[in-house]
Amino acid sequence: MPAIDKETCNGCRICQTYCTVDAIEFDNRKCYIVPELCTECYVCLRMNVCPENAIYAEELVGFYKQFQHVISDPVENHGVTGVTGRGTEEVKTNDVSGRVKKGWIGLSIDMGRPGLGVYLRDAERVAMACAAAGFKLAPQEESPLAALMPDATTGKLEDGCLDYRLLSVIIEGRCREEQAKDVFRALLKVEKEIDTVFSVGLISRVDENGNCRALEFLDELGIERPHRGKVNPGLGKPLSID
Ligand code: SF4
Ligand code: SF4
Question: I need a labelling partner for 161 at 20 to 30 A (CA). Which of 47, 217, 233, 234 fits?
């Protein structure tokens, strides 16, 4: 993890302006990094901002520390999925991967952005609330968070990881259309119980008439429709035909 050498630090506080989540504090004319707040994003190191070269990297000890760094540092490559950033393609390649099929709705719950970070205990709360409402959480080959989830049917994470903070993390999965409103209701409830923010990517197949069931569900629940979206027109020589 990053650390600041007290002897070398001149107290200029430049590094504080670069920290993504306010994890660098100042006391007695020196800056120091608070381990419980640091997400291991390495921005302070990568930007090379310290005029005294006082910021250095200590060894990342233990799986959770390494996980924290790989997910928080956007230039790292995730070992299982092989994808940089947070280690997931979400449904950007759905025409090939077929993750969200007809009759299903996908969600990509993006937690901690911008600039707040997310403790894994809050990610667990959201994952468990969704799972209890019928949401099927994505397996490890699709979503890095599943590596910390011994049982994807519940969304419960390993106890040892809960106090680790990430710059952001994505909870992914899908449910049948009939269960989508229950999952949305669960999200509306759990958002009041966590100490960070999330945004929800709603993934839906559009039928041959241009209708989108997911948007109709939002109308029925009184949730405002999104103002922007991404379209996958299926140009990727689709391997998924259903
Ligand atoms: S930028 Fe370097 S010298 Fe300045 S406060 Fe941070 S660690 Fe200390
Ligand atoms: S690694 Fe990231 S979170 Fe930790 S002190 Fe550096 S900039 Fe802040």
Answer: 47
